[in-house]
Amino acid sequence: MRMSNGVKAGTAAVWLVLAGATAAGCSNTVDGAATCPGCGAGGEPNFPIGRPTVSPPTVSPPTVSPPTVSPPSAPAPVPPGRGDTLPPSSGGFVFIETKSGQTRCQISEQTVGCESNFTNAPIVGGEPANGVEVTADGHLRWITGNLGAIPTTTIDYARYHAVGWTIEATSKGTRFTNDRTGHGMFVSTEEVDVF
Known about the structure:
Helix content: under 10%
Oligomer: single chain
Mean pLDDT: 74
Structural class: mainly beta
Radius of gyration: 47 Å
Shape: globular
Strand content: 25-35%
Largest sheet: 6 strands, mixed
C-alpha cells in the first residue's frame, strides 16, 4: 500500500498502533495483590519506619611533628632593658639603633662607629661626614659612608654592655665608654664629644 505523501504502509501501521495506545490511556498501576515470600500467607512486607542509628566515626587525634628550626645567621634583637648584655654576631660585632631611630652604631672590641645625620659635621672628602668612629684608646675620626643593611637591635633609654663597652642611652644622646680604658665618646645628632 502506498500513501499519497510517499509514506510507506509499514510506517503508517506503527502510527496507528501508537494512536490506539494513546486513545486507550496508559496506567502506572498493576492489578493484583502484594505478596511477600517467607512472610506467611497473605502477609505484607515489613519495612522499618524510623531512621537507622549510626555510630559517630572514630577520629584519632592528629599527630604533630615538632617544627624545624634553622639557626639564625645573626643574633636576634634583644628586647630593651636595664644593664642587658648585647650578644655579638659571629663576626664579633654588636649592631644597635637608638630609640629615636636617628643613629645606628657598629660596636667591636676595639672601636665604636656611628652613622647619623649630624647637624655640625666636618667636611670629609668634599662632603659632610655622616659617620664618626672612636677607638678604645680615645682616638676619634670622622667618616663618610654607610653602614649598610646591618641587623640592628633597637635600644631603649637605658644602660647596656657589649663586647667590652658600656652604653648609656638617653633622650639627649648615647655615651660609649670602653670598660678597659675608660675612653669613648658621646654621640647625638647635634654633637659628638670624645673623652
